[in-house]
Amino acid sequence: MSCINAGIEVRWKRLHDGAILPQYQTGGAAGFDLHSAESGDLPPGAFRMFDTGWSVAVPAGFEMQVRPRSGLAAKHGVTVLNSPGTIDSDYRGPLKVILVNHGKELFRVTAGDRIAQGIIAAVTRASFRESDSLDETARGENGFGSTGR
User: Fold this and answer.
1) Residue 8 contacts by C-beta under 8 Å, 6 or more apart in sequence?
2) Which of 57, 68, 78, 82 is geometrically suited to a Cys-Cys bond with 11, CB 3.0 to 4.6 A?
3) Residue 19: per-residue pLDDT
4) Residues 104-125: tens digit of each pLDDT
5) Contact between residue 121 and residue 63 where contact means Cβ atoms under 8 Å apart
6) Domain ranges in the chain?
7) Model confidence over 60-114: pLDDT tens digits?
8) How high is the pLDDT of residue 29?
9) What is d(CA 140, CA 49) in angstroms, rounded to the nearest whole number?
């Protein structure tokens, strides 16, 4: 597989037998598949955490973003509730995905199903400083749809 920015190693610890190690599906894919390690139903309007069966060691200076799979959203109205979810570099607990069913029918997750995608992204830490004023811009304080006018 070809990859523009290869070289970051991410270590995964298996927590459940049968858990599927994440992988990229194509050479140009930005996201890798996250699979459910458990089966369960997701009724319309409900949300639930699904365990992937892994914990992960994201390298310092990076985060793992947990994002929806477009096919689940388009076909079933199922998405990641806190999208994108962030897995910090110092978290070592179980990796779980919160799915929500915005569709009109029951959605059934079977162990092994691809339920989300992960993206490894660089993090820039900011320093914060209180200020009595901010620089002026053409937009100013206009928000909430003001740029569409």
Assistant:
1) 59, 62, 120
2) 57
3) 98
4) 999 999 999 999 999 999 999 9
5) yes
6) 12-124
7) 999 999 999 999 999 999 999 999 999 999 999 999 999 999 999 999 999 999 9
8) 95
9) 40
DSSP state of 60: T
Q: Is 143 helix (H, G, I), strand (E, B) or coil?
A: coil
Q: Is 53 helix (H, G, I), strand (E, B) or coil?
A: strand
State how far the alpha carbon of 58 is from the alpha carbons of 13, 55, 72, 75, in Å: 11, 10, 26, 31
In CATH, the number for domain 12-124 is: 2.70.40.10
Tokens 């949300």 found at: 47
Q: Cα angle vertex 16, ends 43, 110, to 5°? A: 30
Does position 1 have pLDDT exceeding 50, yes or no?
Answer: no
Residue 54 · residue 13 · CB < 8 Å: yes
Overall pTM > 0.90? no
Using DSSP, state whether 66 is helix, strand or coil: strand
CA gap 49, 116 in Å, rounded: 12
Contacts of residue 24, Cβ cutoff 8 Å, sequence gap at least 6: 1, 3, 31, 32, 33
